[in-house]
Here is the input.
Amino acid sequence: MAYNNYSVALFDIANEKANTNSIKTQFQDFYDVLKKQSDFRKLLNHPAIKLEDKKAIIKNVFKNIDLDLLYFLYVVLDNNRFDMIDEIYHDFESLIFEQNDTVLLEVYSVNLLSEAQKQRITNLMTKRFVNKKIIIENLIDKNLIGGIKVLHAGVSIDISLKVRLEELKAVL
Here is the structure.
């Protein structure tokens, strides 16, 4: 897991400079752009574009980026590891959450959950994650039909209607 070396290095730098939250927020902003703008990601991954041009693009698009994060992204580019940026980001985010006794739950549902539904899920999950702050990221999955699917650290709790129907079909 080479991506872990990068995420740990950024985490250590952020802690050393005592600006973990700032770097996390800026890395999240950078990552959100990559998710929403597939052309931007392709541009940074394209082998025909010179390394220095890629660095200039990042610096020009993210004018107020923290220098430690900027130089970190340069190192990722220099080492030809930009294809692992998703894993690096998620691993870095996990390290931050762990440090802050926080758990991120990806909750998939057919429609957006209400605040009351999110609170109910949080209340149920506090039994599993004692003394942890729980953050729910609600994601839409129209294939579920109904119910929810909760993901955390690669573990899935699937109480969706789709799974129940598949189980019933297997029995019949």
User: Anything to note?
Assistant: The chain has a mean pLDDT of 88. The beta strands are 102-109, 133-140, 147-152, 155-160.
